Structure formats: structure tokens, C-alpha cells
Amino acid sequence: MALDKAQIEQELAKALSAISQAADLDALKQIKIDFVGDKSPLAKANQALGSLEATQRAEFGKLIGQARASVNSAFELKSNDLSDKRDLVALQTEKVDVSLPVRRVLKGGLHPLTILTNEIADLFIGIGYNIAEGPELESEWLNFDALNIPADHPARTMQDTFFIEPIEAKLVLRTHTSPVQIRTMLNQKPPIYVICPGKTYRADELDATHTPVFHQVEGLVIDENITMADLKGTLDYFAKSIFGKNVQTRLRPSFFPFTEPSAEVDIFFNGRWIEWGGCGMVNEKVLIACGVDTKKYSGFAFGMGLERTLMVKHGITDMHDIVEGDVRFTQSFGVGIK
Ligand code: DAH
């Protein structure tokens, strides 16, 4: 490439004029390619210096160097100027008026049953228990037979139990969390300290006190020298943690096929005795069915309804409030995220 002073000055003038006329940063990007970058005429002229002889190289080198320096600095100034302008526009258009009234964003809340379940899990984990789980679709054998509930027991009739087709599969929606006791004993050796909170099902109509899908928490302890005093002490701790330290518990003789002796546990809360759940010493037949050495070990179990616990604790009188999922009900318990 032949170099020519006038042409270099012309290229310089073109570059400076393009830069000064750039309307925005996008235009400047193209200008950078056309007039500043490696493919610009001045850069090419610079590359051509190598083919000149020494004296000319010095003269043109200076000329081109100065031209490129002034293009670069003009470009720099313009670029700063245009970004300042862009920032200013952004600041003005994106201005937030902090005096405007806020729009309320409705936050969801944990369902009170979830809060209660977490609370119960925490208070038992705090005394060394584990959480056990089992499926909601359960074998009839685990839901009934292994718990010493015979085939002609009223709990097994169509009214109470959701049987799953085909009937020969002998599957039910678990009617209580007690089958998790069996699963736990079959799967681990004593000492066993577990609670099992979970969903349970019975063929009831939804009304003020019933719901076909409800929740229970089961407790099971198998260890050496476990007596009913341990059961009573544990229920006391459970009740006081949930209902407050002034609450009292009372055991009333009762019957469950899987415990012997069996009892109902009542709590004295807000001035009256209220039935809370069932409990007892695990029936020897159940222990034997699960392969527990009954000479060495004994145990207790208990089971409560969580909806019932919630209703008693908070004075809720209608089950519909618990199952309908109206966020206003849930929110009255706080968001529950600790
Ligand atoms: N499974 C019983 C029910 O659903 C509740 C129950 C009673 C559980 C006594 C127990 C227990 O573990 O020992 O009605």
C-alpha cells in the first residue's frame, strides 16, 4: 500500500467526524470496527509501514501514530460521554417512587397440620427418636392381620376401609399409621424409638368432625424394661410440649387388638378432660409376629389424630376449615417458616 500524507489526514478527518456524529453506543460499536479496529484504514496504513524505507518509515510512523492516538482518544471520550448519557436516561426512566402505596403480595403459609407435624417431629427427635415412614397404600396384612386385627373385626368392613381393586391384591388405603409399627419392627432390631406421622384414610363423609383423609402420629418404643410408666411419662412430655406445661394426662382402660393392656389417653385442657388418642403396651402376639424376643424386650405404642390435636389445641370447631385450604385460615397460624 502506497502511503500518502493527504490520504492519512483524510482518513483521520473521516474517523473524527464519524465519532463525533455517533448518536449512541450501538453506532459507536460499528465506528470502532470501521475506524479504530485492526481493519480500519489507519490500522492498515500502520501495517504498511514495514515496507517503507527507514526515513519514510519514521516520518509516516509519526504521522500515523499521532492520527491513531487522536482517533483513540476521541473514541474514548465519545464512548464515556455516550455511556454517561445512557446511564442518566436509565436513572431517570427507572426511577422508583418510594411514596407510592405498596401492592400487597399474598404470601402462602405452611398448613397448620404441617406446622404441627414438624413440631411433633422436633420434640421427639429432641429425645432421641427417629422418624419412621410407610406407604399410604398398604397391604391388608400389615394394616390389620399383623396388628392382631382379625378378619371379622368391624374395622375391616367396607364401611371403614377403602379397599383397592383388584380385591385379590389385598391392598387398602391404610386406616391408621399403626402398620408402620410392624414395618419398623420387621426392619430393625430393638432398641426402637420412632414416631410415624402420616396420612390415613377411612370411608367417612366430610363433616364438622370427620374427613376421609386425615393424619395420625404413631409412636413406638421397644427396649428392655419398658413399662407403662415410660408410656405415661412420654405422653406427658408430648402433651405438655404441644398443649402447654399445665396440661395433665390421664390413662383410661380401653381395648385395641395390638396393645395389651390398652388405654385411651385424655388431656385436661381448658378446664375439661378431652380424649386425645389410644395407647398401650405392645401386644405380645404382635411382638412375636415381628420376631421380637419377648423375653428380653417389651414396648409401648400410641396413636393420635393430628386434625383432632389441632382442633383441641386451637379451638377449631369445623373440620372444613382444616381441609379446605383457605389461605386466610392458614395465615391465621402465621407463615410458619421459622
Ligand atoms: N391405630 C389406632 C386407631 O387408629 C390408634 C392407636 C391406638 C394407635 C393404640 C396405637 C395404640 O399405637 O397403641 O384408632
Automatic annotation (TrEMBL):
Record GO biological process: phenylalanyl-tRNA aminoacylation
Q: Which residues form the Aminoacyl-transfer RNA synthetases class-II family profile domain?
A: 116-312
Main location group: cytoplasm
Report a single Gene Ontology molecular function. phenylalanine-tRNA ligase activity
Q: What is its EC number?
A: 6.1.1.20
Q: Which cofactor does it need?
A: Mg(2+)
Instruction: Identify one Pfam family in the record.
Output: tRNA-synt_2d
What is a single cellular component term in the Gene Ontology annotation? Answer: cytoplasm
Keywords, comma-separated and alphabetical: Aminoacyl-tRNA synthetase, ATP-binding, Cytoplasm, Ligase, Magnesium, Metal-binding, Nucleotide-binding, Protein biosynthesis
Reactions catalysed: tRNA(Phe) + L-phenylalanine + ATP = L-phenylalanyl-tRNA(Phe) + AMP + diphosphate + H(+)
Q: Tell me which SUPFAM superfamilies the record gives.
A: Class II aaRS and biotin synthetases, tRNA-binding arm
**Gene3D superfamilies, sorted:** Bira Bifunctional Protein, Domain 2
Please state where this protein is localized: Cytoplasm
Q: Which HAMAP family match?
A: Phe_tRNA_synth_alpha1
Tell me its family. Answer: Belongs to the class-II aminoacyl-tRNA synthetase family. Phe-tRNA synthetase alpha subunit type 1 subfamily.
What interactions and quaternary structure are annotated? Tetramer of two alpha and two beta subunits.
| Protein name as it appears in the record | Phenylalanine--tRNA ligase alpha subunit
Which organism's genome codes for this protein? freshwater metagenome
